[in-house]
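Figure S7 source data.
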Amino acid sequence: MNKKVAIERVLELRDLIDRANEAYYQEAMPFISDRAFDEALSELRELEESFDLGTEDSPTLRVGGKPSESFVTVEHPQPMLSLDNTYNEKELRDFDKRVRDRLGDQPFTYSVEMKFDGASIRLRYEDGQLIVGATRGDGERGDDITENLKTLKDIPLRVDEVVLKSLFLEIDSDWDDDEEDEDNRNPSFVFEVRGEAYMEKEAFVRLNDFREEQGLPPFANPRNSTAGTLKMQDPREVARRPIRFFGFDLIVEGRPSPPTQIEKLKRIGDLGFPVNPDYRLCRSVDEVLDVISEWDLSRHSLPFETDGAVIKVNEQHYRAELGTTSKSPRWAIAYKFQAEQATTLLEGITLQVGRLGSITPVAELKPVTLAGTVVKRASLHNEDEIHRKDIRVGDLVTVEKAGDIIPQVMSVVDADREERGKPFQMPLNCPACGEELVKLDEEVKWRCINPECPPQIRERLTHFASRDAMDIEGLGEAVVSQLVDHGLVHTFADLYQLSAEDVEPLERMGKKSSKNLIEAIEKSCTQPFQRVLFALGIRFVGKTVARDLAFHFRSMDALLEASEEDLCAVPSIGPKIAGSLTAYFDHQKHHKTLEALREAGLQFEMPDQTGRDSERLGSGDDESETGYRWFLEGKTFVLTGTLPTLSRNDAIDLIERYGGRTSSSVSKKTDYVLAGDKAGSKLAKALKLDVPVLDEETFLEMIQNQVGTT
Ligand code: ZN
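Tokens for the predicted zinc ion complex:
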């Protein structure tokens, strides 16, 4: 591979990784598997290393390293104080009076900033490089979450030296960038930016949707989801969540800070950190109160949640004079907006079917105005939640907005009245298709697992046609939607009845694309059995599980007959997946789906060129009798470096074709490392662990010896 090709591939991989991260929560069903994601990332890492193509904003830096067992506690060089809260005009005027009493007739101003409902963090930079990122903790010490914070796109990993220099030239005229011995000098310039990590309302809603689909409890508000995210053990998971950052404080170590709060905010912005632009300079407490009432009205239309305002004495030099109490500064205070609540009548409880079959009970409310919008419905999350709050139709309930956006039923107001309705009873059948609902493993949600349930069919078909499943080119979300809307497709099998004339009238189709689409659908009939299994979208059955099932059971018929115990005999399958599979196959309806697909000509068994099936039923494990076809079964390969003739994907294909699998990291369980040019740390590790290393030639020979030809 030459450098030009490498650059192209690097750009392609970065784009893929970024899109995959974005899609993760938006589409509930990620378009590439975790394994494919890790592969892309490690390929990118190797290319960047080999061709020296690393950049500051590369996903290899942003998607984070290995999960950590626990976080190290770090002491804050200056405490991260919390602010006292005020809740009304009088309390705020009292604060103003205390400030004026202390400052006498010295002139001063206030800065007013929005308060964000997230998690406070501090970021330490030495010579422009991010060194430590930490949570507030108890104010004196917090958790070192640097690796997680590095995944936030809002946080610069390095501050441009020119910017640094020009900004602080006036503070420190001794700045010297001609230093020869970079490594040995002490950090000559240290600063900290403090601010709030937060989650935008929309991202919060998406994350909760995703969690509900996954059967996880939703977060109560963006603050919880942000704090929870920042303390996750796996930075890769953090990178997938859209956490944002606003800076609000700048501390320059060993040098004077900028003279005012407003000046600080400007500098934080100049340094490359996002600063919420809506900050104000006020000359009196009356002006402060005006700003607060203005924001209280406008806040609901902001993309993020603000739960109040932070008022600071603007001039830095008064801060020492005003001092701090044991916990909070005397020169700043927070003003909290009142949480908006409303009381209304619960007129009914209905069920909503999610895109992936999860069932959510919904409160049908007498319309009521709350935080600027009319609320008619509110999620009740799940059956248990309704019973816990003992919510019944006919009750008066209080409603609040989580994260300023999602209406939630908080409690019943008149629970002790004499005549109440009956306790809620969860219906047994799907409101959309009538299928009996199931509850898998320990999930809190009921589900409709009918793959052809109307509210789910779009999502199911899109998954069915996706690249890792049936790989039907041209059958993306937009076309699927049209097919469903026009009543052309209700089931998976309907796809195989379509003709070019059927699809030609669809938007942006035309003669050529119609013909191509039908051909692509026909071609998908040859996709191997494991892809068919994956395409069905059975819960918990991802690509890897589908492949393991296919290799183990060899045919749909054998799989249909398998007991939960038989299923658990497959290494990658535990009781959770086995339970999901049996729940799926127990439904008569699914047999109809499967029969229709079988008739359409899809592959329902593994190609049988070796008589392996009869072997399996007979003597069992005698490997020598099983022929060449799966001679790599159970073997794990790790690829590293650039192979002379095979592309990475070709090599993976070959390994998988003969039953092997690939992994992205070398461990004691690795059977072979297939190494090419510029193999990096993986090769070193293989040698250390005594894992056999193959070059391309040996690898191809190995296959040739088994197969006869390649
Ligand atoms: Zn249904």
